[in-house]
Specification:
Largest sheet: none
Number of strands: 0
Shape: extended
Number of domains: 2
Length: 143
């Protein structure tokens, strides 16, 4: 029964567009949509919302989250693997510079995948060393 709510919600949104804008498919006719057509489109600097600066962090996000997906495949949390795989594959198609926010739902799954590392003494030592830098970064970001 719950699966029926998804298409009904979509029809409701498009129905609202038809009522307000007189166009059932108004979403597809607006000029500012960023459609998910090609993987790694974020590296096309000629597109809107991308640019050329600081794209190496996106490679880092793809690497960490891809590694988390592969790690979850062989874990006891198999359902997390399927969700993270679908979400990660969709993230590869995002044509926007802000991949970090688009991929936030993958972060808790990455923590689950790398639980042994994040609870290790090695991580705790480095975390304590970097804690002042993390604090200063957050403080500067808030001001």
């Amino acid at each position: 029964m719950g699966i029926v709510l998804i298409p009904l919600g979509l029809l409701g949104v498009f129905g609202l567009y038809a009522k307000q804008y007189g166009d059932f498919f108004a979403y597809f006719h607006s000029g500012d949509n960023i459609h998910l057509t090609f993987p790694f489109a974020v590296f096309n600097f000629q597109k809107n919302w991308v640019g050329t600066a600081w794209l190496e962090e996106i490679i880092f996000y793809y690497f960490i989250y891809g590694l988390a997906v592969i790690t979850l495949k062989d874990s006891k949390y198999r359902s997390f693997f399927y969700f993270s795989l679908v979400f990660f594959m969709a993230t590869l198609f995002v044509q926007h510079r802000d991949i970090s926010r688009y991929s936030l739902p993958l972060w808790p799954l990455a923590l689950i995948a790398f639980e042994k590392f994040f609870t290790s003494k090695k991580f705790l030592i480095i975390f304590i060393i970097l804690l002042p830098a993390i604090f200063l970064f957050a403080w500067n970001f808030l001001n």
